Amino acid sequence: MTTPGSEGSDQLALIVGLGNPGPRYAGNRHNVGFLVADELAERIGGKFKRHKSGADVAEGRLDGTRAALAKSRSLMNLSGGPVAGAARFYKVPPESVIVIHDELDLAYGTVRLKRGGGENGHNGLRSISKSLGTRDYLRVRFGVDRPPGRMDPADYVLRDFSRAERSELGFFVDRCADAVTALAQKGLEAAQNEFH
């Protein structure tokens, strides 16, 4: 199996940032995947364009690695179709797809990389797993912390980052983009060793 970071491989890295489209959701915790994808697009000098997969896609080289960055144009809970469509278009096997998403079970700003696992109530991941036919894809988990008190997690992730969180958000997004780059270039184990 050829995966991102394989020696001698010029395989394209398909990197998907999860979020909800439109200005209403732009600053939400649930949209941190979009924020990281936007940072990566800046790094490759690419602009997102409408793609027939149902995602907006930016292509370029991420520190020498061929990359396609994707953001679904559908709501988070329906991300699977556009992600699977992009994977088919770019001929990237499901186990090589990299998905960036918000994670309630990690402290704010913590970045963790893994392959597979459960969806933990994340409807975007559930949709992707269903559409790809497997849970065995690469995940970049960006911690957004648990909601305070008895707040419903679904309400919490659809709220904007707090003022205090926003003061550090740029730093954490940048660090997450570094982790994605390492994952695409060096593979999972090397990137985990560097960022965990």
TrEMBL record:
Which GO molecular function, any one, fits this protein according to its record? tRNA binding
* Subcellular localization(s) per the UniProt record: Cytoplasm
List, alphabetically, the Pfam families matched: Pept_tRNA_hydro (PF01195)
List the Gene3D superfamilies hit by this protein, alphabetically: Peptidyl-tRNA hydrolase
Superkingdom of origin organism: Bacteria
Give the CDD domains listed for this entry: PTH
Keyword Cytoplasm carried by entry:
yes
Family, similarity comment: Belongs to the PTH family.
Q: What does this protein do?
A: Catalyzes the release of premature peptidyl moieties from peptidyl-tRNA molecules trapped in stalled 50S ribosomal subunits, and thus maintains levels of free tRNAs and 50S ribosomes.
The protein's name in its UniProt record = Peptidyl-tRNA hydrolase
> Which organism encodes this protein?
Actinopolyspora saharensis
